Amino acid sequence: MRERTQEIARLRRGFDDRVRGLLNADSRTKLAELRTNHRSAWADSLATTIGDPAAMAETRAKLLADKREALQHLPNYHAIRQLQQEFSRDYQRLTDHRKDRLQVHAKSWAESLDTFGMQTFEPPFTASDIVEFPDIPGTDPIKSNQSATSPPQGLIINDVTWHDDNTFGEINDFNRWAGCDVSVGIDFESPSSGFLNVAISMKNLVNQIWVRGTDNFGLSSANISLDHHVFVRVLRGDQRVTSFKTVFSQTWVQLEGDDFNFTFPPIPAGPAVFATDFADALHAGEKVQILGGCETVIHTDVTDMDCTARVNMWWQLQKLWVWLS
């Protein structure tokens, strides 16, 4: 994750430098006048349209059409748009979701297994974990995080709302990514030495995913990448080893700055079984935590727009299998 974030930061710095070279003093002055005039026109229109949604929408649509027409006359405008398209393409490539390591099976997966040496756990579970990231003061774009766990029921709630209001097209806008993972599981003592294998049965109870964006009248654009994963994690001292399976991944590219509002259909409820193995062997008597959970990751690049994304996912960890090989 850190490497991907650094790559995106390098990509953005290069893009900003190239845009600065195309935005001369005259262009910057005209852009500032454009923002001021359009905001004043919108504020003035509210005196007669407020309380009338149809009239407000009509006025806003006209102002945005006027904005696009005015932008066409900026020096190097089309070259800047071409750079935005190039940036969005490279951005989407960098935010492709991670390589999955969890294998997915039908809920009847365990029925045909040789269960010798396999331990099975069901609620109530004894361990839980919630991690919000990045853990860097002043950079957190999460507007609210209502994530929670209930180990006795195996309940996992990942409820994150991300928000970025980039009103004036700030070059140094650090609110580019955020996320949270939530999990429940067990405290486990290895009965013998061997390589750890884990499987979890997960059922989806609630899923809501939506993104919204509002144009702020400048050189507007938005790139939003949203991923939601199921994972199995082993906590071994201060080491976290995690295997993921992506259940939702989507990138939105909005180069024209138009308002947008997308709500996505539910994912299958399941349950499904997710299984993995771990490369480092455990020692007999070693104590670890084994967790099953979900993670939301949001990467964004927003200019002159006010954008919000929400992921509200409720999962239930119904069963956990552990065996050594």
What does this structure look like?
- The chain is of the alpha+beta class and 325 residues long.
- The protein folds into two domains: 2-83, no CATH class; 101-324, no CATH class.
- It is built from four helices and 14 strands.
- A hairpin with a 2-residue loop joins strand 9 and strand 10 (239-254).
- Helix 1 (2-22) runs antiparallel to helix 4 and helix 2 (25-49) runs antiparallel to helix 3 (53-71).
- The two termini are 30 Å apart.
- The mean pLDDT is 84.
Topology summary:
Blueprint: H1 2-22, H2 25-49, H3 53-71, H4 77-94, E1 103-105, E2 119-121, E3 127-133, E4 142-145, E5 148-150, E6 155-166, E7 177-189, E8 196-215, E9 221-236, E10 239-254, E11 260-263, E12 272-277, E13 287-303, E14 305-324
Antiparallel strand pairs: 1-12, 2-14, 3-7, 4-6, 5-6, 6-14, 7-13, 8-11, 8-12, 8-14, 9-10, 9-13
Helix pairs in contact: 1-4, 2-3
The helix content is: 25-40%
Spans of at least 5 consecutive residues whose pLDDT stays below 50 are: none
Order of helices and strands: HHHHEEEEEEEEEEEEEE
Structural class: alpha+beta
* Biggest sheet statistics: 9 strands, antiparallel
CA radius of gyration is 24 Å
| Secondary structure tally: strands | 14
Beta-strand percent range: 35-45%
Average per-residue pLDDT, rounded, comes to 84
Number of helices: 4
